[in-house]
Amino acid sequence: MFCAKIRAFCLMLVLAAPLFISACSSSSTSDSNTPDVHDTSPPTVVAQSPADGAIDVTRSGPYWVAFSEAMDEAAFSAGVSFTPGSVYFDLSWKGDTLVITPGSLLEGGTSHSITIVGTVEDVAGNALGSDFTLPFTTTVAADVTPPAVVSTSPAGGETEVLGTQTIEIAFSEAMDHMATEGAISSFPEPADGWGEWEGLTLKLYHSAFPQDSLITITIGVGATDLTGNHLAAPHVFSFRTRQDDTRPYLASASPASGTVSVSTGLSQIVFTFSEAMDNNSFDFPYQYMDARVNQLIHTEPAFSPDGTTITVPLAHALAPGCTYWVNFFNATDASGNPIDPNPTPYQFTAAGTATSFPVANANMWNFIAGASNEVTVAIANYNQGTGAFDQVVVNDAAQTQEVTHFKKTSAMIQHLGRDEYRNGVYQFSMIWDAPLTYVELPVENHLGDSWPLSANATIDDSTTMTLVGSTSLEASAVDLVSEALRGTFKGCAVLHLDADVTRYVRGISVDVSEVHQIVWLAPGVGLVRIVNYDGGGSDTLSVYDWSL
After folding, report:
1. CB atoms < 10 A from the CB of 319, how many?
2. What is the pLDDT of residues 42-81, one digit of tens each?
3. pLDDT 10s digits, 496-542
4. In angstroms, what CA-CA distances link 298 with 270, 295, 316, 336, 397?
5. Which of 83, 190, 385, 540 is least crowded, fewest Cβ atoms below 10 Å from its Cβ?
6. CATH classification number, 250-349, choose in 2.60.40.1220, 2.60.40.10, 2.60.370.10, 3.30.559.10
7. What is the CATH number of domain 364-547?
């Protein structure tokens, strides 16, 4: 059943971890919405339905307001209200006309009003100026008219249809979304699909149907309007997909693949393919995606109307000297042909010098600890003159757990000591009598090196500590797959810390703790994974977000 594949439109990203080129479609802005820099006239309302103060108005809508020119559609999501305020409604556009469709049947014989705030603007930035209010009263008459399918795209009997063409079904009146979506089936079924409503029209996005195949869509009588009236009979239509054996390829990109010294202020990446692509095929396995790229994307990529171009907006600046990459693996055209070559590699390098241990005030790494808890590690109190800085660890209850003191020089990062907290409450400080070499810089020049650790610290008048051990870097950089970010960090340096810490009270050894820690440092990002071992097992922190 096609209905089993339908999902909420573009759940992305917004999500959680933002994904590179999710299986979402986005229509591009039309020419009619291009700002006219010479336009200084405010827009006006030129028509509306229902009429001002109308009575016996349909309880299911849709209602509409036509403007004198193209409007900034994004401003209307927060600029339209319904009275009474408990009414849920959808907004959609047909040219310069705003269509307002209730999500459920309005109360009969009741006064309602729709208000559009005067701050909404046309595409040139001119405000409406004053609030527009449309009052009306709903009918008390019962709705016993069954809904009907008005049109479909593709039309029944159409041939040479792209395998990924969006299926559009227009109804005669507002429909119950859940019941209607559940009444739709397809033979054969697509591998994936989801629905989006625009007023009375349901748009079904899907992965590619088989080539040169008859596709049959059935809207069953389970489809109902908001009153609960069913379709009088099933509506069935069929179309045939086209035959296409030509494999697509990446025709160009901006920045071009292999480009170096790309501005860290890059605002978007644009990919152009040789033909229309299946946007649902751009969800790659972790090993084919740079985890850093996923972190850059917080809003959905946009496909051009012809399906050949993907524009990927970037949410923040690039990390200096960092190489960003993606391998287009099993990306297919609208007929299901895989990209050539498969995978197709793409990468570029940001301007500047990469570091595996970035240090700046307000740098922050958010980690998942174990299965659920979250830990934040942040850089604070960085003094560029002396190189001193603190690494502050905070738990998911916003309580400080520890503050570790470091010093950065051109040749190394030194460990100076630590302040211990318990659930945000300060316990004690442990400052070494001599700085410890935590890691030598630049990290990539010291792979395979190790450094001894030996230091003493005074806790209070009666308590002291000693530390003896070593730190070392593995001989080769490694690629770390990040499940939290659905991607891979390439070229990570792996740092090992092994030491025995002995606590003395009045000169008598009272306990010995073994410290074993492994830290993965990714170029341009820094801490991406930390594993702490003790006698009771291990605790793993995996980064899911960072701010540099």
Report:
1. 24
2. 999 999 999 999 999 999 999 999 999 999 998 898 899 9
3. 999 999 999 999 999 998 989 999 999 999 999 999 887 666 788 99
4. 16, 8, 9, 28, 25
5. 385
6. 2.60.40.1220
7. 2.40.360
Q: Predicted confidence band at 330 (pLDDT cuts at 50, 70, 90)?
A: very high
C-alpha span between 359 and 367 (Å, rounded): 18
Instruction: Sketch the domain layout of the chain as residue ranges.
Output: 36-138, 144-240, 250-349, 364-547
Q: Which residues have CB under 8 Å from 355's CB, separation 6+?
A: 320, 321, 441, 442, 523, 524, 526
**451 within 8 A of 434, measured Cβ to Cβ:** no
Query: Residue 202: which of 188, 221, 219, 226 has the closest Cα?
Result: 219
Residue 269 has pLDDT above 60, yes or no: yes
Pick the CATH number of 36-138 from 1.10.3720.10, 3.30.70.3400, 2.60.40.3710, 2.60.40.10: 2.60.40.3710
Architecture of 144-240 per CATH?
Sandwich (2.60)
What pTM was computed for the model? 0.67
Phi, psi of 7 (to 5 degrees): -135, 165
Express as a percent the part of the chain with pLDDT over 70: 92
Report the greatest alpha carbon distance in the chain: 92
Provide the pLDDT confidence category of residue 11 given band limits of 50, 70 and 90: very low
Q: 178 by DSSP, 3-state: which?
A: helix
From 9, 33, 32, 1, select the one nearest 166 (Cα to Cα).
9
Half-sphere exposure of 78 (CA within 13 A, CB side): 3
Where helices occur in 2-44 by DSSP H, the ranges are none
**Which of these, 455, 457, 474, 466, lies nearest to 519 by C-alpha position?**
474
Selection from 82, 179, 67 nearest residue 129 by Cα: 67
Residue carrying the six token digits 């600029």:
79
Contact 479, 452 (CB under 8 A): no
- What pLDDT, in 10s, does the model give residues 331-363? 999 888 999 999 999 999 999 999 999 999 999
CA end-to-end distance (rounded Å), the chain: 46
Residue range 418-476, pLDDT digits in tens: 999 998 999 999 999 999 999 999 999 999 999 999 999 999 999 999 999 999 999 99
Distance CA 290, CA 276 (A): 24
Residue 383: name the closest of 355, 361, 411, 410 by CA.
361
Which residues lie below 8 Å from residue 239, measured CB to CB, with a gap of 6+?
154, 155, 156, 157, 158, 159, 161, 214, 215
Domains 36-138 and 144-240 share a fold: yes
